[in-house]
Design brief:
Elements (H helix, E strand, L loop, with lengths): L1 H7 L4 H13 L5 E2 L3 H8 L3 H13 L3 E7 L5 E8 L2
Antiparallel strand pairs: 1-3, 2-3
Helix pairs in contact: 2-4, 3-4
């Protein structure tokens, strides 16, 4: 259902590319946690463009993001959950 819905949406191409990237890397529960730098490098986008795409997808209800933390309290990569 998600792929068809993403193509029929009015989201910018950066958000569509990011959604497909996350969907391809998600586990059975629809969760994955690539770093923004990794996403940017693999999609040939800037980190700020990736962040805007994340915001686009969250706003439209396609994904949810959650900050992950290391045992020492430091920030780790974001956890992405595919919702559609």
């Amino acid at each position: 259902m998600g792929r068809r819905e993403i193509y029929e949406s009015d989201l910018p191409h950066r958000a569509v590319a990011l959604y497909l990237y996350l969907k391809d890397r998600a586990d059975r529960d629809g969760k994955c946690f690539p770093a923004i730098g990794t996403i940017a490098r693999e999609l040939n986008l800037s980190a700020s463009t990736v962040k805007r795409a994340i915001s686009d997808l969250e706003k439209e209800g396609f994904i949810r993001k959650k900050q992950r933390y290391r045992e020492n309290g430091g920030r780790s990569s974001l956890l992405f959950e595919i919702l559609k």
